Amino acid sequence: MDSESETRISKTKRRITAGFRSSLNDFWKIQEYNRKTFRQQPLQEISGAFGDIGTFLPIIIAYVANRSKPAIDLCSTLVFTGLFNIFTGLFFGVPLPVQPMKAIAAVALSRAFNKEEVAVSGLIVGIVVGVLSVSRLLEWFNRKIPVPVIKGIQVGVGLSLITNGGSMFVKDDDFFLSQHLPQLLQVIAFVGFLASNVFRRLPLALILLSLGILVALPSLINHPQALGIWRPHPFMPITNPSFQSGLDAALGQIPLTVLNSIIAVSALSADLLPNMPTPSPTAIGLSVAAMNLVGCWFGSMPVCHGSGGLAAQYRFGARSGASVIFLGLIKLLLGLFAGCLAQEVFQGIPNAFLGIMLIAAGLELANVGEALNTAEARDISGDKDGLFVNLPSHGWSNALAGEDLTLERRKRRWTIMLITAGGIIALKSDTAGFVAGMLCHWSYQWYDRYDSRRSIREGTIRLGDENSHRPQAVVS
């Protein structure tokens, strides 16, 4: 081996060693931040940990409603989502949620999927997202999608959460105690919601969850459940019938995961927690891929990270990874020792409590839209990390950062955001809203190019007309 090769190998080893040391140093900084934040505000972190149960519980309850043939394994879901919560809290340091994949859930519940079909759909999404992450196509998508479209996705998802929360809030519950209890619980939940808007440190999610468990106790007494230790049962879900059904569900989930669970989550994390390192789309995508490529083999529910869940946990007090680590430990213990007990408790929590938590989460998420035309928007404040925006590709002024937007530009950005949000709400599809927002954005780009060429052409014609009317020199 010549000296030049030895030098290259030595440099490569030094770079790998330096990168490993830097990553390890960052990891310990995150753990220090988690520990410090939890010690400073333990109630807020614990309350924020449960901020996302308004989305998590209804879907997981629907999956296991058919006790003789559930679509997922509840104990496996609790164990693996608990582990995923712990790992995301340790490695990201922000309260990233672990949520059900909603498009898959909608198809699976409407078509009565079995465990194999649900697992295949999660595995397909995991493989596709993993490929997009490793190839760094997610970073490319993140750079190319305009900020007004991303904000529109966040606003649209937030308003959808408010709508779903309102439906759940007024939904009737079947209680053993009193026929008037649902109305009383609705009043309690709404008063608590109003109070939490004034007193932001009020641990509303923790209070509502505690009250909900108390309300569920009579049901637990009437249907006692035995404790037991979880035993994993891996299986091979990929068969011809299950693959086709799983593919149908996965095709609707992939755009939703890329837009709302990866790109919008990365942007929202930067908006809500600007003092923390923002997880990159590639890192979040690899996390989503790993969760599904591991858990689905054991009957766990397909999961992702969602901007609505992040907004929910932030709204109820979570500011660090410590909150989701705490939640993960609770899930893990329930899954290992008390899965059937947990199912009975989950089904007894009042809809009013879950609904008001969804409403609060939706408001928090929709509120990020107000920063669209302010210095908080990443394409206006500038790209600090060099990860986000290629300004010329967005069709705005190359000198947009640091300058005031004209009134026309502000109106355009608001229009793009509202069309994106409106598409999501009206068509009940993140993909449809995204397409509508991009078409609106491109229409403005096309008009600007047409107007620019027309101005140049008219200027040339006017210049030619002026020259044609100039007096000609007389040649004698």
Would you spell out the secondary-structure blueprint of this structure?
Elements: H1 3-40, H2 42-49, H3 53-63, H4 74-92, E1 99-100, H5 102-110, H6 115-134, H7 137-144, H8 147-169, H9 181-198, H10 204-222, H11 240-272, H12 281-295, E2 303-304, H13 307-315, H14 321-337, H15 339-348, H16 351-366, H17 378-381, H18 407-427, H19 430-468
Index terms:
mainly alpha; 476 residues; two-stranded antiparallel ribbon; 19 helices
Summarize the structure in short.
By secondary structure, this protein is mainly α.
- The number of helices is 19
- Average pLDDT score: 83
Biggest beta sheet summary: 2 strands, antiparallel
SSE topology string = HHHHEHHHHHHHHEHHHHHHH
Percent of residues in helical segments? Answer: over 70%
The number of E-state strands comes to 2
Q: How big is the Rg?
A: 26 Å
Across the major sheet, the strand order is: 1-2
The portion of residues forming beta strands comes to under 5%
Span of the ends, CA to CA: 86 Å
Residue runs with pLDDT of under 50 for 5 or more positions: 383-403, 468-476
Structural class: mainly alpha
Sum up the overall morphology in one term: globular
**What kind of oligomer do you see?**
single chain
Task: Note down, in words, how this protein is organized.
This protein has a two-stranded antiparallel sheet with strand order 1-2. The protein is 71% helix and 1% strand. The chain is globular. The protein has 476 residues and is mostly helical.
